[in-house]
Records
---
Amino acid sequence: MKTNEEFKQFFIDFLEVIERQILEIGYSYRQPKKLATAIKGLSDHFIGNEQRITPWNSKEFKAAYLAYYTPLNLWRLLHLYKTISEDIPWQNLDNVLDFGMGSGAASFALDYLLREKGISAQLNGLDQSDEALSCFKEISKSQLSQLKVSRLAEDFSNFTNVEFDFAIASYSLNELENIPEELYKSQCLLIVEPSSSEESRILMAMKEKLIDRGFRILAPCSHQTPCPMLTTKKLWCHARTPALPPSHLNKIEEHLPFKNRTLTYSYLFASRKNKAAPHETHYRVVSDPLREKGKTRWNICSDRGIETLSLLHRAQLDLDLNRGDLLELNRNSIEQKKTELRIKDLNSVSIVKKDS
Ligand SMILES: C[S@@+](CC[C@H](N)C(=O)[O-])C[C@H]1O[C@@H](n2cnc3c(N)ncnc32)[C@H](O)[C@@H]1O
């Protein structure tokens, strides 16, 4: 089971900071129905908005983004930084870029992780919307302790001669035709996108582009070969967070046609410096456990492509594998049944990193 304990209090406290922001524009978590109407409107806008015009100029959409989508992205990013923590060069994070930062979910999540590590860094924030940057500034008054804001700007012209150690683009590249050139210059690049089949596939295809531009993909891929899921129509790569803690958001969701108990997202984490490939022999679990009569299956990804790992229930082995776990397999002691790798004993599977 994935756990949410570690980030729970921070998340709940963050909603109180948001409450102060939305009160100023006539909304409150104490009026969940009114917020739900705004959120439904913004969700329809995202789905139907061909030109991807960002919604910061509407008071209703701003309330919806602040009250709902910002905390959801904060929760996703907290989980993601933890997932890739071993590969983030924490000691060399001098200049961070949050591209398309909106109200700053990715920066606030990073600040929390930096607080735990006692590390500081300079933050450069970029968003084409002045209104979004104002929201970030307001929230940052109480929510930034480790990241020192160096520059906030609406485009890259203000960032000439700055080299970024870590660039993050959270839910912002899907609004663009191409990845901005400046992002390719960063030492590390983290791209987070929605987990829909279409948007994930665009991200999966970016893998090769990043490799061509001198990056190594450190996660979720354990290998540098093209994403094998692109050859199937049924699969697309996405991650899943632990369940959200109970909060004001549950009251809002009582009035919404969708519920977000756990959150999914797609991501790529790439680095220029990390030439070693520590995970090359590893397998990433890329599905939730698929329980069927008599067995549980998981899709796993490696440079061999997508394979199915299975465990017969009558073997009575206790194996808790979840989407995102990184595995090592001893293939010699695993029985291969057509395309299925059947686990016979627990020694043939070691969990290198649990996705918690
Ligand atoms: C969906 S929001 C994501 C906000 C935030 N990163 C998050 O994770 O919650 C996308 C943001 O990207 C910004 N954006 C889109 N295209 C941009 C561009 N070309 N330059 C700068 N910002 C851009 C929008 O203004 C918007 O605030």
---
Amino acid sequence: MSEWEIEKIAGHCGARLKGISLSRASNSELQKMRSALFEHGVIVMPDQNLCPDDQIQLARFFGSIDVNRFFTPVSNYPAIAEVRTSPEQSAVIGGTWHTDHSYDTAPAMCSILSARELPPFGGDTHFASMSAAYGAMSHGLQKMLSNLRAWHSDDSFLNSNLGLANNPDAFRDPVLHPVIIKHPVTGVPCVYVNGDFTTHFENWSIEESTSLLAYIYRFVTQPIFTARVVWEPGMVAIWDNRLVQHYATADYYGHSRLMHRITVEGVPLKGFN
Ligand SMILES: [Fe+2]
């Protein structure tokens, strides 16, 4: 088994795994990688250059593939979503803080993103630790939020012109998740509301929910909770959607960018209280 190292890239989330080859890794190496994912929320591995079959095989180590019903699939690989920005696009997919698949009853546990074509600058992805954000809240706010659930909806994909598949059958009814979840593997409490898909608190009106949700979004995305991933050719990033939110930076207008994404099935989320 080859030796590889884990280097933290920020105080509260993010780690770089050096020396691992994902397409040749042994089972024990992959288990170590999975532990790093649950500890750091997002792990990045440079110089992987995974082919689509390698990426699918890697995803299957974590579980069954959760095929996204809105994204355009990669040609001949329906399990892989294409995250493409063309040079004339000023907005990008994921260009606001969000959690992938939170509109599902059992939201995807992790997303695996493989860099295929990068712009000459920019296009970094930011991550924010939802366990660190929870830990920094006052006891009073923690307690109040722990007693709430919130509705999540895929409605924000309506009228999207960002290359998302225009499929009216893809939409589902909104789902409820606890606002503070207990991480399904580690048990740590994590904030689980996001600006793209959360609509309002259970038994609250949308108007009543807006101010508190806006406060939470501002709070949880403070720079101290974040790590910034600067993409390199062939790099792979894996993040745990229960532990971090993420944000794609749309600062490379005039250039194209292509990433391949696979999401892995998760489980229904339980509250922390
Ligand atoms: Fe995303």
